[in-house]
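Question (not urgent): is this output format expected?
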Amino acid sequence: MSHELPKTRDGAPRAFFGRRSGKKLHGGQQAVFDATLPNLEIKLAGPLDPRSLFPMPTG
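Got this back:
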């Protein structure tokens, strides 16, 4: 398994500090994720208008 360094915009390797991927979710975390995510889905029928999702607060 080879790990390549991330690249800069010009393709040169650059240093990376930190984790590149997280650990797997535990069973309870995965269950909450699986139950909650479908309720947060935004189904698009066309272009997204953020104002329709987040109307301006009143008052």
